Amino acid sequence: MNNVNIIATYGPSISDYNMIRDISDNGVGMIRFNFSHADLNLFDRALGYIKDLKKKGYKIETIADLKGNRIRIRNIEKPFDIKNNDIINLTKENIRTTEKNISFDYKYELKPIKKGHKIFIDDGNIELEVLSVSEDYIKAIVKRGGVLKNNKGINIPDSNLYFPYVNEDDLNDIEYISENRFDYIALSFVRTHRDIIEMKKVLNQKKITSRIISKIENRQALRNISSITKHSDGIMVARGDLGISIPLYMVPVMQKKLIVEAKKYKKFSIVATQIFESMVENYRPTRAEISDMANAVIDDANCVMFSAETAVGKYPLEAVKIAKKTIDYTRRHIQKIK
Known about the structure:
Helix content is 36%, strand content 24%. By secondary structure, it is of the alpha/beta class. α4 (193-205) packs parallel to α6 and α9 (287-298) crosses α11. The model has no long low-confidence stretch (mean pLDDT 95).
């Protein structure tokens, strides 16, 4: 059974030197920097702290999690409600978003989007159904309403949309990654092994030796999982977007299959998203969250990754400590049960 590593996502909750040191003392071996929410000045400071701690003997590796080909809502001045059965338009045009016309930042053809396709916004909290598609607009009906906020992600899992292998934002971030010698680069929304090959070409040109983690978070990646895993150094079970692309009830089985796939090719696996989500606000995780953590250990995952829990949560150190205790206890005792 693997010695499971804990990954913490960097953010305001762990932004000072002492906190980075303390979470490292309590089991965190890797820190993830999410470039979808990048403040490079803060990143510089944190990387300086990590460099200093490494000089003192700490073993801390860094992950640069690239934005990837994420579609986002834009140009909302103030959040507003959209209600069930509302008819709305989504548009590629870079206009001010209103309650009837919502701008999003996808700039390629909309032809793959068809009537009846589902559109999910903000991790699935808002659900739309496509009524019709024109050159620049999607007309849709709101199936599940909610508060629409700026910069929230859009998922259209039924549609095989075009995306470049490496986009402009990621190319810009790679310059920063090169300068700061990140140990790993996590590729978002990988669909085929070509995404990895093309990224490796870019990295080789810049003489970047960071290892590649492929985030598995859509249907195309599941269909191509063997070739993706072969070309990656590790894979991440990114349960957030994966749980939108496929029904939620399928996610636990897919998690186990992906961990087995990684072991088959001698690659490492990471289980991510909502590990101890309740600890963003609460001092203790739920019983279900503890069981989820233990099951990742029993499945023989190599790493578990905190996101909001350590980035913006109220109790980042407590989350790490409880995770470490759960991992250690499960590893010690599960063999006796087997």
